[in-house]
Amino acid sequence: MMRRLLLSGVVVCLVLIMAVPSLAATAQLVMATGGTAGTYYPLGGAMSQIINSKVKDVSVSVQSTGASVANIRMIENGEVDLALVQTDIADYAWNGTEMFKDGGKLQKFAVIASLYPELIQVVVREESGIDSIADLKGKKVSVGAPGSGTEANARQLLETYGLAYKDLGQVQYLSFAESAEAFKDRHIDAFFVTAGIPNAGIQDTATMHKIKVLFVTDEMFKKLHSTYGFYGQATIPADCYINQTELVQTVAVQAVLIARRDLDTDAVYKMTAALFDNLPELATSHAKGKEISLEGALTGVSTPLHPGAEKYFREKGIVK
Known about the structure:
It is a single chain. By secondary structure, this protein is α/β, with parallel strands linked by helices. It has helices spanning 2-24, 40-54, 68-76, 87-95, 149-160, 176-184, 200-206, 218-227, 265-276, 279-285, 307-315, and strands at 27-32, 58-63, 82-86, 109-125, 140-142, 170-172, 190-195, 211-213, 232-236, 248-260. It folds into two domains: 27-116 and 255-315, Periplasmic binding protein-like II (D-Maltodextrin-Binding Protein, domain 2, 3-Layer(aba) Sandwich); 118-253, D-Maltodextrin-Binding Protein, domain 2.
């Protein structure tokens, strides 16, 4: 009898000991997103919920940040494990150009998937008399948060129209939410937003002011694209924002999900599968989910795929 009790005790202890590693094995990951008024933060939350519910050994939490440039630096410094960034910023970082030229190449990240187009939207008041980006000369303009992808897009688009920051009346480096507040209070004349549509910050301003989003002509797109090949053309459909009754042509980059290059291959494979095997659920969780597709998972990607993501897309026939 005593021997049976001892054996039972040993079995129970072994079960408990074996259970502890399985609990400890859950990977606690952090995803860098963007400002709370943008698209990255809520979309990141929706993606993390799907991953957390579908992948038993991974737990993802989201963090509000300064968006693309800050996110890649956070990946490089080991502060976060996943991040949402723009394809242009990923390209700059990998090649050590633009805002990364002084610090050199940042290559501790790898792409999981391309998600959706991010449109460069330049917002002004309808009665402002500003009809073109060229008309921003001498105006008070927010070009996005310091070190953000929006700021780089603003600078490049202004350059295409023959303008530099010194040509503006005043340059302010504000987040989406700060830009919206400054615009509503008439402290600025215009602001740049690079984000999916509709954007919450722009929607907010449209409730107080009649706004318009500036049109980028075919000629200006071709000029921009000849220097910065990662841009594509995009359109904002009529009625996307209050009082915006006509389609607006603009330019866009892609939003991509990236990970630490050394993040476990199996974990990344499972997260990629969780997202792309449950796209209908993601579409109901966030409007941007409707624009994410398996067919578009590599659109605009110019930097290496993570091996875990590559394995999944190879199984699906996306990677040959």
